[in-house]
Input
Amino acid sequence: MKKKIVIVGGASSFTPGIFKSLLVNRKDLSLEEVYLQDIDEEKLNIMGQFCQIMAKKHAPSIKVNWGLERKDAFMNADFLLVQIRPGGLKQRELDEKIPLQFDLIGQETCGPGGFAFAMRTIPAMIEIAKDVVKYCPDAWVLNYSNPEAMISEALMRAVPEAKVMCLCDMPIGQELGLANLIGKEHHELTFDYYGLNHFGWFTKIYDKNGHDYAQDIIQGVKSGQLNDLKPEESARDEYWDDVFERIMKMIEFFPDAIPLTYLQYYLFPDDMLKTMDPNYSRANYVMDTRHKDVFEECKRVIRNNSIDDSELDTNAHGDYIVGVAISIANDLKNRYIVNVPNYGSISNFRDDVIVEVPCYVGANGPDAIAVGEIPDFQKSLMEIEKGYEVLAVEACLEGSYEKALKALTLNLTIPNANKAKLVLDALIEANQGYFPDFK
Ligand code: G6P
Ligand code: MN
Output
């Protein structure tokens, strides 16, 4: 059966990478059509024309369509790759800058910024999931939209009949970096991991002989013999350099696992605060670099009607989500770290919530591995974070100010209820027309 794949949020600067990966893997996907859907007509027209030129060059048989209407986009779809950002980078900038006024970290998915992003995105994701159920109920939704932790909880509660899998490119990004550091190919290694989205730990990295490279890395950091965790081929911008130093510090402090980078915001909010510029946040940087560069390049390709010398290409971000689609489409049961209901995977953690664990992904979706019991330190941190996430989701679904305040008071990056209230009120003020009506 020929497949139709929809990119929801098709006007994102991440679309070229995903689209190219779809073209490269078109045979494994039996791909017939890619449909870009977005609410921003101007940017969508640019991205649509660019993708059409790319398809003409690499896979002329693939149909490329784009439009604003979800019904047109979703009818007969087999997969929806979703990457929306309600409020755009302008609201991201506020999410990052407002918390800094109260000496709280300003980050798009962690802390108060992530809360605000969730309050804007959850209602939009629910609308999308409901339309999926209406127009293409058998389709799989592979979601990259953030903050995934709370979106996955909200969709499980509000639209349980939709087939949704929330994916993050950070664990795979770190896996690729760690494989490079060890001097192995990624496919030679298996990574054990558990946690919540943007809140997890790698516990083992083993090859086919069972040798655990995670222990080598941890011991190397502890003994001082390993003094740089940066992979040789780091594709990231310089912003990521300091991140590797803080991963080392986390391993020095807590040498039982290799933490996901995002734990730096929860364990060292004081350090992170010092790195944040109230006048120039990550959103400003993304606007001035990736966002600007990608759209300028798309326009150049359209002007020349040629993609021959363009550098916009596949990347790990695009390959990851497309790889998951291939694994579902062909029932491959390949192993991916995804967000799934716990249902006993982490045996000493709540069952009724979403966790991020390795899964074997086939035609029926993800089968989580049995992680078993996790240690008290990580479990306790996860319980607090999960309490925050669940209350934030309930606040959003019910429009409850009280739950919103409880959520932020629990958040590990916010030291007390006074600050939680100050930042909540400021975020509500800055998000009128986006947030639910909190009562
Ligand atoms: C990582 C995370 C994504 C997040 C992205 C932000 O890849 O896994 O969830 O969207 O970072 O990157 P940016 O360059 O926009 O700050
Ligand atoms: Mn992520």
Summary: Residues 3-167+290-357 form a domain with the Rossmann fold fold (CATH 3.40.50.720). The two ends are 49 Å apart (CA to CA). The first strand starts at residue 3 and ends at 8. The mean pLDDT is 96.
